[in-house]
Design goal:
The complex is a heterodimer of chains A (about 270) and B (about 300).
Chain A (H helix, E strand, L loop, with lengths): L12 H22 L16 H8 L1 H32 L8 H13 L2 H19 L5 H24 L4 H8 L4 H30 L2 H6 L7 H9 L5 H26 L3
Helix pairs in contact in A: 1-11, 2-11, 3-6, 3-8, 4-6, 6-8, 7-8, 8-11
Chain B lengths: L1 H43 L3 E2 L5 E2 L5 H7 E3 L6 E3 L1 H33 L3 H16 L2 H12 L4 H8 L13 H24 L4 H9 L4 H12 L1 H16 L3 H6 L7 H9 L5 H33 L1
Antiparallel strand pairs in B: 1-2, 3-4
Helix pairs in contact in B: 2-13, 3-7, 3-10, 4-7, 5-7, 7-10, 8-9, 10-13, 12-13
Chain lengths: ~270, ~300
Amino acid sequence: MARQFSVRRQTGFTTIAMICFFALYLPIAVLVIYAFNAGQSLSIWEGFSLRWFVKAFENQHVIEASIRSLQIAVVAALVATAAATMAALATTRTEPYRGLTLKYAFINQPLMIPEIVTAVALLIFFSRIKVWTGYSGLGYLIAAHTAFCIPFAYLPIRARLENMDLTLERAAADLYATPWKTFRYVTLPLLWPGILAGLMLAFVISLDDVVITEFVKSAGQDTLPTYMLGQLRRAITPEMNAISTLFLLLSICIVTVFFFVNKKRI
Amino acid sequence: MSGAAEVMETQARRDVRNRWLLSLPALLIILLAASGPLLIVLVYSFLTPGPYGDVQWQPTVSGWINVFLERDIFDETLSLADAHVSIFIRSVWLSLVTTVLTLLVGFPTAYFIATRPDNSRELWLFLITIPFWTNLLIRTFAILQIIRNEGLINNLMIDLGLFARPVQMLFTDGAILTGMVYVYLPLMVLPLYASMEKLDFRLVEAGYDLYATPFRVLRRIIVPLVKPGIIAGSILVFIPALGAYVTPSILGGGKNLMLGNLIELQFGQGRNWPLGAALSITLMLIVMVALLFYVRNARGSGVRHG
């Protein structure tokens, strides 16, 4: 019997899609499998072992870099999300006013410029400031991460706000709520899923950054990705697979939560 | 009456002022740690390189001249800097091929996801979203493991008797291309899916009613309708591919440079910051041209189907 005709069917598309999904996940699967290899090799299986995970946890560089990555990501994501929330409130649900387009362009600017260019710009700028002030702490990395996280945090918050009309806020104001109370008890609870999504996006983006961090960091300020980049240029052992596997696990957890927060409607 | 109008106007003005105050933190952070420093890059591109990196405050255009020309060390004549020109051409070429390949693979994939029933569509979308948010460095490392001389592909081919000895795939342009297609594919699929999701299949049905073949329906109905997604996806892939640094530096080795690596080189071993700055601005200009192209085309197709 002939296959039922469907207007949606295009010959070969399903096959290509299946190959695509397979190709997307095969390298990741191989990487994760060899994290559990008992031997030194990345391609010859010598039995199951957790030794590379143990080795990673005993590696002081890895621990320090991970802690630094988390510190930067937490601060940058929180500051970026707070700034992005305020900016989103300021740029939505309004008649167009002078400077609005400029604000959009400004907030999205880090998305438009290739990362390597921003990285070079920050290297030049911050190296001057380092000489002038003598300060060479984590502040530079946090500032840089906050800036490029803002557009990512801004996107879901703005999307959420655009789906909220002003009726409830007007009702609150009619009932003599102060602007702050209206915001605290009406706007904020409605906006919360958007803020949470923005926060998680910003956190992941900060955690993943390689290029800007590589240029801005001072000596001894490796984050986990820049440490891994350095190691990739040397001889590689399954310890890298173990670190990558743990990193992947964290990302997947965050993405899963993000996915469900974002899907939930009011 | 005029009193009420005045009150309204003051209120509107106060509203705009409050909105500026609210957006101030975000604008200041971006000005300080993203946009502002770009102007300094422009200034640096017109200065003289210092002996140990950094710059000396003597204005010159030699940084810009060095972007495409090189001065002979003996007779001081200028000639085309073949190395730089070939890196520019290679970067643009590899980015274009990456864009086309991701489109060829991404289009059917996005279409597949968009035509799933509601309950399973979420799952397929989720499977595309995961690689999108996982670390680019880790995904590049995953590709590195597969295509090494001792990697999965070579081992498999040797076991099957197809290769006599490992074929060198790593550190070639093909490796960079494979890596870039792999890491940027989700950037193509997601915007394509977003426009296919809104596709009105009654139009496709109308095409079939008029005896169009499936290929004709694809070419004359589906592709024109999802054109905004195609353009958005292409831009989202082309721009980061052009400025790619991590993928070519890991998979291309030291020899196969792209623009991002050339820029980095000037700030590292090259110790020629003005040239690096001039190269950065040039890269930014190419991106601007691509973005302008996007804005014009996105607007055009928006009017037609909006």
